[in-house]
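Forwarding these from the shared drive since the link keeps breaking.
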Amino acid sequence: MKKLFELGNQYVKESSWKELALVKLCLCAMGIVIGGQVAPKYRRIVTGAAAGVFILTYIPLMIKFFRIAAEKNGESPM
């Protein structure tokens, strides 16, 4: 597993933001396809779980993004 994480880190280091955006679009599409296969009985639960994961991952990513943007503009980080 450690080698897999190292490989992932190396891939990210050698990729441009455009390539990483394509990876994210690919994963999003895969998630939509998988989500479309969920039985109507469980869709509300799956949607709620997906929304929770989105919020829990989006907030730290945006905090880091805005910190980097503030540092680049010469402002003090948050």
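-- next protein --
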Amino acid sequence: MLTIAIANQKGGVGKTTTAVNLAACLAEKRVRTLLIDLDPQANATSAIGLEGLAGQSIYEPLMGGASVIEKVLPTRFEHLFVITADLDLAGAEIEVARLDDHLLRLRHALAPLKNDTSFDFAILDCPPSLGILMTNALAAADELLVPIQCEYFALEGLSKISHVIEQIKSVGANPNLTLAGILMTMFDGRTNLSNQVAEEVRKHFGNTVYTTQIPRTIRLGEAPSFGKPIIEYEPNGIAADAYRAMAKEFLQRHKGG
């Protein structure tokens, strides 16, 4: 199982939208996928059409009180499973920070799944902050995927998260962590700004940037309120096409096809 953290310390950049829709599109391609909601707000949980169940989040495994395997739930989509979030995770920000191995709690919690053949990928949807849950995700992940909005502060945000990656590596929490993907979101090809930002990001990060760009659409913004990924809410729309293309590119990067 390959673990992918989807993270950006800035909110409103399409992070949860990308986590949910990438997971759904991979499942549509019959790729066994586990979506793990690490945000106490549980937006990924509701966007997939579920409610956070008390005691069902990854909080107890983080604290060493339960096995992560007990927390995995099926969804209505074949090949897609989820670990939901709940408000207990807000407490984890404080409680985990007090522990000696606070950076490695999630890595240890996910260890039973690491060599399990039940899943091909685990997608970690991180909170929009540089707190303990996000740093735990970076310490547990094989790779980081960063969605960024096509706006002027995009490169500044990438600079900050690149710095955090180096910190995680330098303290030995995850020396092999790589920034394996940058996804341009809320792209509007009609504006100079979107095109300029995309060009600038590609100039700095090269092939790390996905060829696929996710458009800004009303339907994509509406879908989470109906508890549906975009391929279910508007399966033939441009946003669904974009996330399917992104999932295909994701698989090409990881499996060569």
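Strands lie at 2-6, 33-37, 73-74, 80-83, 121-125, 143-149, 178-187, 209-215. The mean pLDDT is 91.

- D.
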